[in-house]
Design a protein that fits this description.
The complex is a heterodimer of chains A (324) and B (501). Chain A is an alpha/beta fold. Helices cover 46% and strands 20% of the residues of chain A. Chain A folds into 3 domains: 35 residues; 128 residues, 3-Layer(aba) Sandwich (Rossmann fold), CATH 3.40.50.2300; 141 residues, Response regulator (Rossmann fold, 3-Layer(aba) Sandwich), CATH 3.40.50. Chain A is built from 11 helices and 12 strands. In chain A, the strands form 2 sheets. Chain A has a 6-stranded parallel sheet with strand order 2-1-3-4-5-11, with helices on both faces. Chain A is globular. The two termini of chain A are 47 Å apart. Chain B has 501 residues and is α+β, with helices and mostly antiparallel strands. Chain B folds into 2 domains: 210 residues; 151 residues, 2-Layer Sandwich (Heat Shock Protein 90). In chain B, the strands form 2 sheets. Chain B has a 5-stranded mixed sheet. Chain B is rod-shaped, with a radius of gyration of 70 Å. Chain B starts with a helix and ends in a 6-residue tail after the last strand. At the A-B interface, helix 2 and helix 4 of A face helix 2, helix 4 and helix 5 of B.
């Protein structure tokens, strides 16, 4: 060992040069390159220009959707301008900006804005293609709709409940912000499916339906637990799901209530592994993003596209948790 | 030059080691300098870019306000100054738009600027239509168009504002990241410094060790050599060539010295042995001579005979027998002379006197059968010294051997002559002579001891004569024999000056 060390010290200057160069290179990379060049200065020039309108609902899924869309878009030469649309003024601003910046396609993932249809029609008049994501607006003459079949979602939720060994399943449903009061058919198809399939099973009863947009999920759960109203909870929102589980833990009611969440976050996966959460139903946005990008390219090239492109629904429970 | 450069990069030399290390430190300082320059310029460039864009956007906003104001003035007054002002603003905005527009981009800032320029182009189109509608006196239309201008203007400002906010946000984020990065880099720099210090320490330790160890080893070897131990360990594996060369040369030198000393010792031992052998030979020789002399002396019972003879002389004188008295006297003298130590020194004169006494006795014995004569041609016979009993044995040889079978008168002549300070005594007889081969043998100092001493009064043979003479004068050439068979024999005795040893 000593001999090896001595032999190495015989070449101290070489070791020094290597150490200095490596450390300096690392230092330059860490200090400057990553910082100064953090903004994308890619030499690629986009070919397709899209505007992406979104609201602040389903923020968690959208953040994932947005970053994935940007990355997938780059692979397909698509650049997107993102506009947050939460009011009538912001709708006008977003559409006018999109019109004046000559976008090829406008993607809309917005719910509960009445003026949308009007602007969509105007956009069609300006020969801008419209893609609706999430909540469909069939009356707006949009080119295509990418979304989840809510009826199927409701059916899957009941199927997941049926897998549970709990007897007399009294279900409480907490609808997330995407299920606004005004969503109408969009909401109804989900609730209709829940009712329809629960009615087919005598053991399942949809007892409670609440909106987290009107009341915090924690308060809803607290009320249900204290008053012993449910022994099964369905959450349609990722953030609400985490809040519900944490509240159950705080109330020491995890063993009394089974939860079906929405989403595929690390926390939810961990909850399912531990048995805290019965299962999760989530929308496969990764596939949805790829479909959306392909749609943009096809629409920009004036190709014919399907008016409805469904996004897949995935179910995670203890039977397939190992895959995630 | 090429050699010098190759020496610098030569492996395992002190020079190359020092140069390489200094070179490394220089690289470090150069890198530090360039890194500092790079960081500073990168930050400055990045922030400058942001500020420039910010400034351009601000100017653009002002210019848009100006254009809008001049447009409003124009539609209100149709004033040519307003139109000129409008046109100027229009041109200014157009040029600014051209500089801002980088086309579609994945870079958010550039994409935002593209969007702004697209909206401004729309804005300018609308202002143009306002002017045209005004000129066409289509009041309702131009007022509507002017409202649209205002709408677009607001839109532009919102976009500019968003872009500014975005850039400030990005800038702040970058600044924050950069600050964190710089803090990290400071830590990294500190680590580099510590590593360099550690490695420098290691280098100094290793370097001094590689230099000092051979020097210390050489110093120890030098001490050992000074203590007489020339066998030193030849194993020293130093990193530096110079040290190895120095050590191997030193070892070689020690080996050579050792070989040289061993050779000197062997030579000295051989010489000592030779000297001892010589001394031993001399001692043996000396003892041999002493014992020989003692043996010779022991053959004579001199004192009794001498005293008796003296009594005989006195008796002869009392009875008036002169010839008898003379005979006994000569015999007495001869005996007296004969009993003296052979180591004693005598003059030639004394030796000749003894010869005369011997002659006298032999004359009485052989009467006319013998004839003696002595011819002395030197006045220094009393000054020339020699060992005793040299001439008598030679004469006895002539009588005993030379005249043994001779019927006529034997003549013995002694001639003493001096030449160049050297005295020679020649004893010549007319006896039977000596065969030539024997003469040669005798001149080569080869004597047959038994033969040469037989019948001698003194018991001293020719070999003894030669030996004592040569020892006395430290000269081998003291005797020379010339002879012719049945004719004569001449024996030359050379009495030179004695060499003092």
């Amino acid at each position: 060992m000593k001999k090896i060390l001595l032999n190495k010290t015989r070449n101290i200057e070489i070791i020094l040069i290597i150490v200095i160069l490596v450390l300096f290179a690392y230092g330059v990379f860490r200090t400057v390159y990553l910082t100064v060049n953090s903004d994308d200065k890619s030499l690629l020039i986009p070919k397709y220009h899209v505007a992406f309108f979104h609201d602040d609902n389903d923020r968690y899924n959208f953040d994932f959707f947005k970053s994935e869309f940007i990355e997938e878009g780059k692979q397909n030469e698509i650049v997107a301008d993102f506009y947050e649309v939460v009011s009538s003024e912001s709708v006008e601003y977003a559409f006018k900006s999109a019109w004046m910046t000559n976008v090829d396609v406008i993607l809309i993932k917005v719910s509960n804005i009445d003026e949308l249809s009007e602007y969509i029609i105007e956009s069609e008049n300006r020969e801008i293609k419209i893609v609706i994501i999430g909540n469909d607006l069939p009356e707006s003459n949009r080119d295509t709709y990418i979304g989840v079949n809510k009826y199927q979602l409701g059916k899957n939720s009941i199927e997941l409940i049926e897998r549970s060994n709990v007897e007399n399943k009294i279900v409480g449903v907490i609808l997330g912000s995407e299920y606004g009061i005004k969503t109408g058919a969009y909401q109804n198809s989900y609730l209709n499916a829940l009712q329809e399939f629960s009615n087919q099973n005598d053991d399942i009863w949809i007892a409670q339906v609440e909106y987290s947009a009107e009341k915090r999920a924690e308060l809803i759960v607290q009320d249900w637990i204290i008053n012993n109203k449910v022994n099964f909870i369905i959450c349609t929102d990722v953030v609400d799901s985490v809040r519900v589980v944490n509240t159950l833990i705080d109330l020491n009611a995890i063993s009394d209530v089974s939860v079906i969440t929405n989403g595929k976050t690390d926390e939810i996966i961990e909850y399912i592994q531990k048995g805290t959460v019965h299962g999760s139903i989530f929308i496969d946005y990764e596939k949805g993003i790829k479909q959306a990008v392909k749609l943009v390219v096809d629409l920009s090239n004036s190709k014919r596209v399907s008016s409805y492109i469904p996004i897949n629904i995935e179910i995670i429970d203890d039977s397939n948790i190992g895959e995630y | 030059m090429k050699d010098k450069i190759s020496k610098i990069f030569e492996k395992n030399t002190i020079r190359s080691k020092v140069i390489r290390f200094v070179f490394t430190l220089i690289i470090f300082f150069i890198l530090s300098y360039f890194f500092n320059q790079y960081v500073t310029s990168s930050i400055t460039k990045n922030f400058n870019e942001v500020f420039i864009i910010n400034l351009e956007l601000e100017e653009l906003t002002k210019e848009l306000d100006k254009l809008e104001s001049s447009l409003e003035d124009y539609i209100n007054t149709k004033d040519s100054d307003s139109f000129i002002e409008y046109s100027n603003s229009y041109s200014s905005i157009e040029s600014k738009v051209r500089s801002l527009d980088k086309g579609l981009s994945f870079n958010i800032s550039e994409q935002s600027r593209y969007n702004i320029t697209q909206i401004i182009n729309k804005y300018l189109e609308t202002t143009d239509s306002v002017i045209e509608l005004k000129r066409a006196r289509n009041t309702e239309a131009y007022l509507l168009a002017f409202d649209e201008v205002k709408d677009i203007s607001r839109l532009i400002k919102v976009h500019i504002n968003d872009l500014n906010e975005y850039m400030i946000k990005i800038n702040l984020e970058q600044y924050q990241k950069l600050s964190e990065g710089l803090v990290q880099f400071n830590s990294l720099f500190l680590i580099i410094l510590i590593i360099i210090l550690l490695l420098t320490g290691l280098f100094i330790y290793d370097f001094t060790k590689n230099i000092l160890t051979p020097i210390e080893t050489l110093s120890d070897h030098a001490k050992e050599i000074s203590n007489g131990n020339y066998i030193i360990d030849s194993n020293m594996n130093s990193y530096f060539k110079e040290a190895n060369i120095l050590h191997s040369t030193f070892v070689e030198m020690a080996i050579n010295i050792n070989i040289y000393i061993e050779e000197l010792k062997e030579k000295s031992e051989v010489e000592n042995k030779l000297a001892q052998i010589k001394i031993e030979n001399l001692r043996v020789e000396n003892q041999l001579k002493i014992s020989e002399l003692k043996a010779l002396q022991s053959q004579i019972n001199p004192h009794f005979l001498f005293n008796t003879l003296n009594a005989g002389v006195q008796l002869a004188n009392l009875e008036d027998a002169e010839r008898t008295a003379e005979f006994i006297y000569n015999l007495s003298r001869l005996f007296r002379y004969n009993i003296q130590s052979l180591e004693k020194e005598v003059s030639l004169k004394e030796e000749l006197k003894n010869v005369k006494s011997y002659f006298h006795l032999m004359k009485v014995r052989f009467d006319d059968l013998l004839d003696f004569s002595i011819d002395i041609q030197s006045d220094n016979t009393d000054k020339i010294f020699m060992p005793p009993l040299i001439l008598q044995p030679i004469i006895e040889n002539a009588i005993i051997h030379g005249f043994k079978d001779k019927t006529e008168t034997g003549v013995i002549r002694i001639l003493v002559s001096e030449k160049y300070g050297e005295v020679s005594v020649v004893i010549e007889d007319n006896g039977i002579g000596i065969p030539e081969n024997l003469v040669q043998q005798l001149n080569d100092n080869y004597f047959n001891k038994s033969e040469s001493t037989t019948g001698h009064t003194t018991g001293i043979g020719l070999e003894n004569v030669y030996s004592r003479l040569s020892n006395y004068f430290n000269n081998k050439n003291v005797l020379k024999i010339e002879s012719e068979v049945n004719c004569f024999t001449k024996i030359y005795v050379y009495l030179g000056v004695k060499d003092e040893i």
